[in-house]
Specification:
Elements lengths: L14 H18 L3 E2 L5 E3 H9 L3 H6 L1 E4 L5 E4 L4 H11 L8 E10 L11 E10 L4 H18 L4 E7 L3 H15 L7 H9 L11 H5 L10 H16 L5 E2 L11 E9 L7 E7 L3 H4 L7 E7 H7 L12 E5 L4 H14 L4 E2 L7 H11 L3 E5 L1 H6 L1 E6 L5 E5 L1 H10 L5
Parallel strand pairs: 1-5, 7-8, 12-13, 12-14
Antiparallel strand pairs: 2-4, 3-4, 5-6, 6-11, 7-9, 9-10, 10-11, 14-15, 15-16
The structure holds histidyl-adenosine monophosphate.
């Protein structure tokens, strides 16, 4: 027996309906903010990720699904969506200097991570990227959009954590302060000792040494004037838009392309993997990948995690409008024609194969929540009429059958 690969899974009905629901809601809400969908390939040249996400990050150094294809190219299943979107933007050659591109995407990403609740090796993200637009209003507007989206889905108990990690200049000065405060790092974990050399800021993200991290200097206290003004501008615009946030002085992200604004939204009910989404500003990324100098800002949300905290009723499929049960060899073809005509006319119709008793079928209709049921036997065929039964209260309506199907067939042009 074959099973899905470890830390991957099948999304089966009715859960799959909830996935479609959150994706449709994203299209609707993001569209109101002027975003358009982009679809990029599932795999890319490996170098795209090493150069953008950063080769000392966990994602690149430990988690990528990298393989050599038959043409001896090193390819990688995308571990995230920002670098591919920026690559696509550069490749398409779009964007005059003052133009702002707003693109969103939905789809699977791949990271070889330890299996845990809410953490998979194939997981799905809904993300949005703004390329162009350097001002703090861009950051605030996108964050407002995210909060409206979560609100419309009925997701409660979320918290927006906000920080600024400044630009490369602020960070160089801050790194010195950080190294001084770290001293010889007695008692810190092995990962942090390694990070001290190759990615000092990531020490702030250490889960094992969380308490020690709290006593380290905050990067937001070491911003230069321009970065501080940007950060204050984001906070002012969020406050004006009524978006609540908490400042998180030690929030750094696991990808190297960020400058200035970084953020995460956590949600209650997710357990240890409580980051529902994350993102930030990446003003150097477009140029870093060979494009023109353009600022960027975006986020990505983990759909697997979103589904876990969606209100129970959200996105559950509508029950059928009508359940047709047939008895006898003549009734079945009539049932089939009726089902076909009504489905084409827009109704949700269940029409199971013959064989089981009427009683068992009616139980099935009840369990599935169908609104109406119709039992067709020889008597109904002879009369050309049948009783429609409303399952909620047993109310019955006697309806002629043939004229309806005939009318629909004529209108559809299937009969002269
Ligand atoms: P990220 O924080 O690596 O950011 O991922 C964003 C979200 O994807 C996380 O908050 C989480 O909900 C979900 N996620 C990540 N890994 C897994 C996993 N193994 N299983 C389930 N869910 C997961 C990025 O990917 C950036 N590209 C975000 C961004 C867009 N920044 C700017 N634009």
């Amino acid at each position: 027996m074959y099973r899905a690969v470890e830390a991957t899974r099948d999304i089966l009905p009715p859960e799959s309906e909830r996935w479609a629901f959150v994706e449709e809601a994203a299209r609707r809400v993001f569209g109101r903010w002027g975003f358009h969908e982009v679809r990029t390939p599932i795999f890319e040249h490996t170098e795209l990720f090493t150069r953008s996400v950063g080769d000392t990050t966990d994602i690149v150094s430990k988690e990528m699904y990298t393989f050599t294809d038959r043409g001896e190219r090193s390819l990688t299943l995308r571990p995230e969506g920002t670098a591919p979107v920026v690559r696509a933007w550069i490749q398409a050659g779009t964007g005059a200097e003052d133009e702002v591109t707003r693109w969103y995407y939905c789809g699977p990403m791949f990271r070889y991570e330890r299996k845990q609740k809410g953490r998979y090796r194939q997981f799905s993200q809904i993300g949005a990227e703004v390329i162009g637009g350097a001002g703090p209003d861009v950051d605030a507007e996108v964050l407002e959009m995210v909060m409206v989206y979560l609100g419309e889905l009925g997701v409660a108990d979320v918290q927006l954590h906000l920080n600024s990690i400044g630009c490369a200049d602020c960070r160089a000065g801050y790194r010195e302060k950080l190294l001084a405060a770290l001293g010889d790092m007695d008692g810190w974990c092995a990962d942090c000792h390694r990070r001290r050399q190759d990615n000092t800021l990531r020490i702030l993200d250490c889960k094992a040494d969380r308490e020690k991290v709290q006593s380290l200097p905050a990067i937001a206290d070491h911003l230069d004037d321009a970065c501080r003004a940007h950060f204050e501008g984001v906070q002012a615009a969020l406050t004006e838009a009524g978006v609540l946030f908490v400042l998180e002085p030690h929030l750094v992200r696991g990808l190297d392309y960020y400058v200035r604004t970084t953020f995460e939204i956590t949600a209650g009910g997710l357990g240890a993997q409580n980051a529902l989404l994350g993102g930030g500003r990446y003003d150097g990324l477009v140029a870093g990948l060979g494009g023109p100098p353009r600022p960027g800002f975006g986020f990505a949300l983990g759909v697997d995690r979103l589904i876990m905290i969606l209100p129970p009723q959200a996105g559950t499929p509508d029950a059928s409008d009508l359940f047709i049960v047939t008895l006898g060899p003549e009734a079945h073809p009539l049932g089939r024609r009726l089902a076909s005509a009504l489905r084409r006319a827009g109704l949700r119709v269940e029409f199971p194969p013959p064989g089981r008793s009427v009683k068992s079928r009616m139980r099935q209709a009840d369990r599935g929540g169908s609104r109406w049921a119709l039992v067709l036997g020889d008597n109904e065929v002879a009369r050309g009429a049948a009783k429609l039964r409303r399952l909620a209260d047993g109310h019955e309506v006697d309806c002629p059958l043939q004229p309806v199907t005939e009318l629909l067939e004529v209108v559809r042009g299937e009969r002269g």
